[in-house]
Each structure stands twice: as structure tokens, then as C-alpha cells.
Design brief:
Length: 160
């Protein structure tokens, strides 16, 4: 597989993943661009790995965790993909408010806890793969998920 073939097949998925991590499409694009430059420079190592996709996802996740560009909490309204069309009318304002509150709660989590939740619930990865991506033990993944969900539950109860 060439670098160009990899980019053609995986760029959209990596961008969606980055949007879920950052909460902002523009920051996600910058993050993916920086990561893909690193991937191209290290392509021989990437393609020799057992799973080039997992290797690149790990690079992207590490870039996100190390991101020091300032707060992205100000722009958390963007989603990776639009909602499907619904047959019944819905209250757009309440849906937007609910989505905004979820993004705000997620944005308050430490970067590693947010990354763990995105890898688990958006990327649908098992604990072992999440641990591999983050370079930590499976127990650390489980405790991070537990702490993140407990924090979200507490904030949800306090908000209501």
C-alpha cells in the first residue's frame, strides 16, 4: 500500500475521529494535517506495522493529547456527521441546547479521558486496542472510562 492509497482510503475517517476528539472541525483539520505530515515522513515505519490504521490513529491521538494550542471549548457545536432526517417534527432549540451541554461536559474532561471515551463509544474499540493506541495498560483504560463517566453523570445530575 502506498501513502497516497492510505490517505485516499482513511482520511475521511481520521478527520471524523479528530472532530470527535477536538470538538471543532478546524482544529481537527489542523490536527489531521500535522499527523499526516508525520505519517508521510515516517511512512516506511507505518506501513511495516501490523496495523497501519491503528498506528496512525495512535499518532493522531498522541498529537491530540499533547495539543497545546489553547482552549477549544469555545467552539464545540460541530458534530462529525449530521443527524439523520427524522419523520416527526422536533424542537430544534432543545436538541441544540442538549447537544451543546453534552459538548461542554465532554470539553471539561481531561484530554486522555475524552480520548478514551471517543475511542470506546465513537470508534467502538475494545479496551485492549484503546490501551495500545494510548500506550497504557488495559486497567488504566477501564479506570479512565469509569472516572470520565462518573464525572459526566455527576455533571448531568447537577445540571438538572
Amino acid at each position: 500500500m502506498t501513502y497516497e492509497e492510505f490517505v485516499d482510503s482513511r482520511l475521511g475517517a481520521l478527520l471524523r475521529y479528530a472532530v470527535m476528539l477536538t470538538g471543532d472541525e478546524h482544529t481537527a483539520q489542523d490536527l489531521v494535517q500535522d499527523t499526516m505530515v508525520r505519517v508521510q515522513l515516517n511512512w516506511r515505519r507505518v506501513v511495516r506495522s501490523d496495523s497501519p490504521d491503528g498506528y496512525v490513529r495512535k499518532m493522531l491521538t498522541n498529537q491530540f493529547i499533547d495539543l497545546r494550542r489553547g482552549s477549544w471549548i469555545k467552539r464545540v457545536l460541530l458534530r462529525a456527521e449530521p443527524d439523520p432526517v427524522r419523520a416527526e417534527p422536533s424542537d430544534h432549540a432543545s436538541e441544540t441546547a442538549e447537544r451543546d451541554s453534552v459538548w461542554t461536559m465532554l470539553a471539561r474532561l481531561p484530554r486522555q479521558q475524552r480520548a478514551v471515551l471517543v475511542l470506546r463509544y465513537y470508534e467502538d474499540l475494545p479496551d485492549a486496542e484503546i490501551a495500545e493506541v494510548l500506550g497504557c495498560a488495559v486497567g488504566t483504560v477501564r479506570s479512565s472510562i469509569s472516572r470520565a463517566l462518573a464525572t459526566l453523570r455527576t455533571e448531568l445530575v447537577e445540571a438538572r
